[in-house]
Design goal:
Largest interface: A-B, 37 and 34 residues
Strand content of chain B: 5-15%
Number of strands of chain A: 2
Structural class of chain B: alpha/beta
Order of helices and strands of chain A: HEEHHHHHHHHHHHH
Radius of gyration of chain A: 26 Å
Structural class of chain A: mainly alpha
Helix content of chain B: 40-55%
Number of helices of chain B: 18
Strand order of the largest sheet of chain A: 1-2
Shape of chain B: globular
Largest sheet of chain A: 2 strands, antiparallel
Number of helices of chain A: 13
Strand content of chain A: under 5%
Oligomer: heterodimer
Order of helices and strands of chain B: HEHEHEHHEHHHEHEEHHEHEEHHEHHHH
Chain lengths: ~325, ~450
């Protein structure tokens, strides 16, 4: 009797264990990420939100006092509002100046590399070289190129008879120079993503198009681009997030006045403004308010993007 | 799929190895500063014969202790002490990190340097309790230090939290060859006489220079340098009676007006000081004068290059003033406070400061050092081989009138310098630039 119930009980124990294993293990496996995220992502986020409601200085965080939403109202309409709106405008213009050409060039490059070429692997690896370069190194080189004293950009302009331009001091010239650094660094990275997606496009689609008499340009336009639509959307989202957080390039490009994005704040982005308020003016509360505004902006962008994606899927 | 079976384990082994190595590094880094517990029991500063200990020194730029061999000498005299120095190039980065460490209460060195622009903040209620009172440090004699320098590091309740290292007495460095080409006198005494006593004479001399200057050369590197020179030589700068009062400060007004005049007359090349184009301009010999606090000599030599050796000379500034200079302080959270204080007192004593001057050109804040041989009669082989460099700087140092500095002095100075750049580089009108500057200051001072 006892022996006959034994295996049965062991069976249920085993099945229960198996059920726990199959249900619980995935949670255990993903737990490290969420624990690390809670410690290094969620906590700082909430703490920054808490700080943004206080007047608190960098060198005395323990002596903060509650000011409610004043940091935010200051930012939108108080003494620093002029700098905030300026930084927001610059973030948008710099973002557009760097993201749009970057993605277009990447798409073109990927299309060319998709053909059979000699040294294709070398070219594909070379594409990633700028991405692997540190922001600091790239920016310093570009700062030298655009330097008013013996810079290469002005030398080239001089060859065609155009006068020297003070790149860093001008509103659009400085933004152009910075957008060029961003474009240079990220084009190859995006091109590789496009290339990977292009290789998943079935070859018979091209064959069929070729039989129908479509040239390469039309093949690109009517076969490649529609197939790449989700990938393009993905790179747009990633680049937009990157552009919203743009900091290293303008900060380093400005040299001595990089912390405020140029003498006239002509290329101060939200990221630079946050650094300036927090670490140069020691106003952690206001810097946190900038950080949360950026966060809200990114959420908004994400929402808009999700809507567009859904619309596209429906249209498909 | 043809995945090699060993790929995963090997990779994870590699990762584990890297993680272990990183942990080991962290552990040793932590233990190096605190490896000797209980060695500060007496706290009398009797360094000899105690247990072995390591003193860490955090500073920025060039303090010159290593260059003058002072750390080695101190360690030789105190065999139980090892000194480790950590240097950050840019003072701004250094200060940001120091503030963060102070507010977190960790990661501080036993000795921390403080720049004069930060000293008012460091002596304020917010921060002064984080530092030790050094007024009674062993082997120290208060009367040796320039009185105003001593006062700057002293809190309202009479605690002295930093001992002065160097000061920044000003001179004007100028290019003899360009002065000659423009028909101006080029001998240091005659050049000093051109603008003696009044900064507006300096601008007048600039107009004379510019009238006959070689093509493509300017009288000054930037109007911001002159602005700082004028304000630095006044006893009323940005603060009055403990309050920020730059809008009513006579020196700020006259310095701003002179800078606008200089710009309108085309005397300035409009460079941003210390920035890369400014550095390049030294080697291209495009400007004839620059305001020259003692520490600026090192920059001139570094950026002008060997080809311009002997072309620079040095003259007295229109008025004596101080631009820059630092202090050494001992954070209260340190483990070896008494030993650190003894080290600071020794490093800032006259003999040691004189050695630093000879090695890197920092002018001592210790008056006794001016009488030592090798200082007043010092001559810089690169800048004006025959100019009385030591004489000019020590005279200027003794003539400095102390000025009231406040917690935001450095910030306001930076913001107004930036306002001048708006005129020089971004071609704004003087009124626009001033209004923008006021907005910037209002927004950054809470």
């Amino acid at each position: 009797m006892a022996t006959s119930t034994g295996p049965g009980r062991r069976q249920t124990w085993r099945t229960r264990l198996y059920r726990w294993d199959s249900k619980g293990s995935p949670y255990a496996f993903v737990a490290p990420f969420f624990l690390v995220f809670a410690a290094f992502g969620l906590f700082p986020l909430l703490y920054t939100g808490w700080l943004s409601l206080h007047q608190v200085s960098l060198y005395n965080v323990s002596r903060s006092h509650w000011v409610g939403l004043r940091n935010y109202t200051d930012l939108f309409s108080g003494p620093p509002s002029r700098f905030f709106w300026n930084a927001l405008r610059n973030t948008i213009t710099l973002g557009a100046l760097s993201t749009v050409p970057q993605l277009l060039i990447a798409l073109g490059l990927a299309h060319l590399l998709n053909y059979r070429l000699r040294g294709r692997t070398f070219l594909r690896t070379a594409l990633l070289a700028p991405y692997a370069t540190s922001v600091a190194a790239a920016t310093l080189v570009f700062a030298l190129i655009f330097s008013p004293e013996g810079g290469m950009a002005n030398w080239l302009l001089g060859l065609v008879g155009a006068g020297p331009v003070h790149w860093e001091a001008g509103h659009w010239t400085s933004q152009f120079a910075i957008a060029l650094i961003v474009t240079w660094r990220w084009t190859g990275y995006n091109a590789l993503i496009y290339l990977a997606a292009m290789q998943a496009v079935p070859g018979d689609l091209y064959e069929a198009a070729a039989i129908d008499g479509a040239n390469r340009w039309r093949q690109f336009w009517h076969v490649t681009v529609p197939a790449l639509r989700p990938t393009i959307l993905f790179t747009v989202v990633v680049s937009t997030i990157g552009a919203t957080q743009l900091f290293g390039e303008p900060y380093l490009f400005g040299g001595q006045s990089g912390h405020q994005g140029g003498a006239a704040n002509q290329y101060e982005t939200l990221g630079v403004l946050m650094y300036d308020q927090g670490f140069r003016n020691s106003m952690l509360g206001r810097a946190s308010a900038v950080a949360w505004t950026m966060f809200a902006l990114l959420l908004l962008l994400g929402l808009v993007n999700a809507l567009i994606a859904r619309r596209l899927r429906r249209a498909h | 799929m043809n995945l090699p079976v060993t790929a995963l384990p090997r990779r994870s082994a590699l990762l584990t190895g890297a993680a272990l190595a990183a942990t080991a590094l962290l552990l040793t880094a932590c233990s190096s500063s605190g490896s000797t517990p209980g060695d500060n029991a007496g706290g009398t500063g009797s360094a000899n014969g105690g247990a072995k200990l390591t003193l860490t020194v955090g500073d920025f730029g060039t303090f010159g202790y290593k260059e003058a061999g002072l750390f080695d000498a101190y360690m030789a005299a105190h065999p139980n002490i090892t000194i480790k120095e950590t240097t950050t190039t840019a003072e701004g980065d250094y200060w940001t990190a120091l503030q963060t460490h102070l507010s977190a209460g960790g990661g501080l060195a036993d000795v921390q340097a403080l720049e004069v622009g930060r000293i008012a903040l460091a002596t304020s209620d917010a921060l002064s309790n984080d530092f030790e009172n050094l007024a009674k440090a062993p082997g120290l004699s208060q009367g040796d230090y320039l009185p105003w320098k001593w006062q700057q590091a002293t809190t309202a309740d009479g605690r002295t939290i930093g001992l002065g290292t160097d000061v920044g007495p000003m001179a004007i460095c100028y290019r003899q060859d360009l002065f000659q080409a423009a028909g101006l006198p080029s001998d240091p005494a005659a050049v000093s006489a051109l603008w003696a006593g009044d900064w507006s004479k300096y601008v007048e001399a600039g107009k004379q220079f510019q009238a006959k200057a070689p093509k493509g050369s300017f009288f000054m590197d930037s109007a911001t340098g002159m602005f700082n020179g004028v304000v630095s030589s006044s006893s009323q700068q940005y603060y009055k009676g403990g309050k920020l009062d730059y809008k009513n400060s006579p020196s700020v007004k006259s310095a701003w007006d002179l800078a606008m005049q200089a710009d309108a007359a085309g005397l300035s090349q409009g460079l941003k000081e210390f920035d890369t184009p400014w550095q390049t301009a030294f080697s291209q010999s495009t400007f004839a004068t620059t305001v020259c606090p003692s520490w600026q000599q090192a920059n001139i030599q570094k950026y002008s290059g060997a080809g311009n050796s002997g072309k620079w000379n040095i003259a007295q500034a229109p008025a004596a003033g101080n631009w820059g200079g630092s202090f050494l302080a001992v954070p209260s959270s340190g483990k070896h406070k008494a030993e650190a204080a003894a080290l600071v007192a020794w490093l800032t004593a006259p003999e040691q400061q004189a050695k630093v001057f000879q090695a890197v050109g920092n002018i001592p804040s210790n008056q006794k050092a001016y009488e030592l041989p090798g200082l007043a009669d010092f001559k810089n082989p690169f800048i004006g081989p025959n100019a009385a460099t030591g004489q000019i700087f020590s005279t200027a140092a003794k003539a400095i009138q102390p000025a009231e500095i406040g917690p935001h002095s450095g910030d306001v100075k930076d913001d107004i310098s930036n306002g001048i750049l708006l005129v020089e580089q971004n071609h704004k009108s003087a009124t626009d630039a001033w209004n923008t500057t006021v907005q910037q200051i209002d927004s950054s001072v809470q």
